[in-house]
Design a protein that fits this description.
Radius of gyration: 19 Å
Strand content: 15-25%
Distance between the termini: 54 Å
Shape: flat
Number of strands: 4
Largest sheet: 4 strands, mixed
Helix content: 40-55%
Number of helices: 6
Order of helices and strands: HHHEEEHEHH
Length: 191
């Protein structure tokens, strides 16, 4: 039997996750996106049931999280030898994020990740992609700070937005509007 899901149930489910290391972000983002959509509807009242389509999305996200319990994260991810940290970033019209992986002789392991859901306001794909690049830059700074005693051979950034990558390559923040200019300054200051 399918149990109906109220807005309160969804909020309680979403808010119970505490993930300071960012290892569960890929699993939690689907639930956060659904919560954002539900909260941005005009319906009021926390006890109201959400639409069947959204409720099925919640059930699907919970099933994925339950499967995620089987994922094992090794305690030691940096082994001797050549170590590279690859930070991937991306953005869409619903969310943006970044994930850092350690690539070495032992394979590739997720180091940390972060994701943000875009709110009700209007956001273009290039703005979301640029925000993902900024998150990647902030992850880079945090990783450098936390792993200051570890020798990392190379950091590499990977993104798929031609617009953002060209802005970074040109490095002319004064020619851009304030949204892109300030974020480009943050990115270039870190590198």
């Amino acid at each position: 039997k399918m149990v109906e899901v109220s807005r309160r149930d969804l909020l309680g489910l979403t808010c119970q996750f505490y993930d300071p290391a960012g290892l569960g972000t890929p699993l939690i983002m689907g639930l956060r996106i659904i919560q954002s959509r539900v909260c941005n509807t005009m319906a009021t009242g926390m006890r109201r049931f959400i639409e069947a389509k959204e409720a099925e999305g919640v059930r699907s996200a919970v099933r994925e999280m339950i499967k995620g319990r089987e994922i094992k994260f090794p305690r030691q991810i940096i082994h001797g030898g050549r170590t590279e940290i690859v930070i991937c970033f991306d953005g869409s019209l619903t969310a943006y994020g970044a994930a850092a992986y350690v690539v070495g002789p032992g394979g590739a392991n997720l180091l940390t990740s972060v994701g943000k859901v875009i709110g009700k306001g209007r956001c273009t794909a290039p703005k979301s992609e640029m925000s993902g690049a900024v998150l990647a830059t902030r992850l880079f700074r945090k990783i450098q700070e936390e792993l200051s005693n570890v020798e990392v051979d190379r950091f590499r950034f990977v993104g798929d937005s031609a617009i953002v990558l060209k802005m970074i390559a040109k490095n002319k923040p004064a020619t851009l509007d304030s949204f892109f200019g300030t974020r480009l300054l943050e990115i270039t200051d870190a590198s």
